[in-house]
Amino acid sequence: MNSLEEKFNHLVTGITRTRRVEAASSYSLKLVGLSEIKAGSNVRSYESDVFTASGYQWRLILYPLGNDNDGGKDHFSIYVRLETLVSNLPKNWEIQVDMKFLVFNQNHKKYLTVQAQFIELSTLKDQKNGYAVKDTCTFRVDIAILKPAEKLETVTFLHNPPNNKFTWKIFHFSNLSDQEFVLSDQFLAGQRYWKIRVDPKREREGVGVYIVPQTHLPNCAIASSYVMFKLKIRNQLNGNHIERTDICNLFLSSGDRGHGVPKLITQKDLYDKSKGFLVKDTIILEVEMLCMSQTQVISK
């Protein structure tokens, strides 16, 4: 096999489920606020912090609404990905992995151990089944050698987090009409910095506005960031602002070009002085983070 995907991303048929009292050996991840993850288009995976198991580095990859491309429709899908660089491995390397995924049942005080396809969303989210009690569930992965988990990663979904608004006033906007995009200064929200991207090019039918993830704060886990947000262009003559709440629950990783609204306002309405959005050649944009993930990793 020539690539990581060929080695690890093949579909395993069949399913095995058992319950056990002891925890998984390699890594533990807790989701808090599970109900905030709602169905929507373009939902991506959440990638955990890197952890070490059996001498190699890995990440947990979660698809909270299922991975349709791998037979996971209507399931909570979970994978691991090898993070150790291939260049650091010996020639003709091969790894044989005995891998199990676990989810804690808070009613039975035991872990449901699953090999192959994971768990149906309807089963996971029904509180009487014991997996998502008080809107919290815990997943673990068992890779090869059983030993105490080295890290506990807790992902908390915060509704209306503090300092969740940023306003960007753009002067001389008409001078930017030939630009593909313009970026704001960075601002801090949650555990990382962000920027607003606006696409002002006059040839387009509308003006696109997006949020773009930047670097994390020092000493924070370098994990994906879940964010639900509202974009607004302010009306400077009256209170008839234009705003759009993103209906997609996204996991944005560093390096993304961002996500937002391709046409927050039409060029026609923007440049119509009677509308009140472009006043003295200035527009005012605002982003409000409605829900964000906060990741904490504790070494045991």
UniProtKB/TrEMBL annotation:
It holds the Pfam family MATH_2. Signal peptide: none annotated. SUPFAM superfamilies: TRAF domain-like. SMART domains: MATH (SM00061). Residues 24-143, 163-289 form the MATH domain. InterPro entries: MATH/TRAF_dom, TRAF-like. This is MATH domain-containing protein. It comes from Brassica cretica. The lineage of its organism: Eukaryota, Viridiplantae, Streptophyta, Embryophyta, Tracheophyta.
